[in-house]
């Protein structure tokens, strides 16, 4: 470790020069908090994340407010995020009603969110997998016609708490379907954090063999079993350059039992800084943001890096 609180920079072969971090703390993190965080605190969180150098910050969700009350203030929050320059502010949109709400506020990036398994599709979207794809079809078409960038999340890619193992071929089918709808990028979700690195490589390889290029793929790991960084490294070695992470390790999913926090952005940046992979993120400023957010939430961050860097004798 250097005196500046950064890891020693020792590059390893076979890794990308730059990684784009898709920051999900304000959405995936806060959607799972028991308490509802005040809108102005959310806005300040996003502003601080942007000031720390994050360029893609998922802001909120335009879902049914009864399903996710923590994000019911999307209409109040989104306009407060004006003035962040080139920072992309994607929002989750499940259906045309959600798209209407997002477009009315000028959103330029949306994400639909599908499931590789039937049980999670039913619990999260009240639909079968194919019904949810049918629900997304007009959303993606209208967004693309409006020049809006579309991300397609795919949950339960590595295991499902109700169905157990999820066959790679089942994930590939739904990923292909999302791509065929016109999604610009896909995010492969390990919603309950059960993936291991060989499984990650196997899924990425199978997707490539099915015609899905690595350049359109991002990874979204939860850290339930402490595997999120190992899985990320496997994905980077495969050529993935978009990695989802959550400041301070906030997160989970309200509709997936046993989903704990996302990969902490600080833990990811510590590893990438050490490897000499550029992220544009200032680790000190990011850690200070997560310490501040932990104070707002009234409990410490679960991120190892946040705890180590903010530890005082
Ligand atoms: P539904 O009950 O089937 O909805 O829910 P519906 O289509 O039958 O409509 C019922 C009523 O809801 C209607 O009102 C609609 O207008 C209204 P009424 O006519 O009866 O007065 N409605 C809405 N209102 C506001 N905004 C909307 C909206 N849509 C319908 N967008 C629905 C279906 C999809 C709406 C519901 O299931 C839902 O909102 N689900 C969201 C769940 C969610 O946000 N989960 C967390 C995100 S996924 C995740 O975290 C995983 C991820 O991180 C990756 C990973 O880790 O795997 C992305
Ligand atoms: Mg998630």
UniProtKB/TrEMBL annotation:
One of its GO terms (molecular function) is metal ion binding. Keywords: Lyase, Metal-binding. Signal peptide: none annotated. Residues 19-287 form the Pyruvate carboxyltransferase domain. GO terms for biological process: ketone body biosynthetic process; L-leucine catabolic process. InterPro entries: Aldolase_TIM, HMGL, PYR_CT. It comes from the Bacteria. CDD domains: DRE_TIM_HMGL. It holds the Pfam family HMGL-like. Belongs to the HMG-CoA lyase family. This is Hydroxymethylglutaryl-CoA lyase. It comes from Streptomyces sp. gb1(2016).
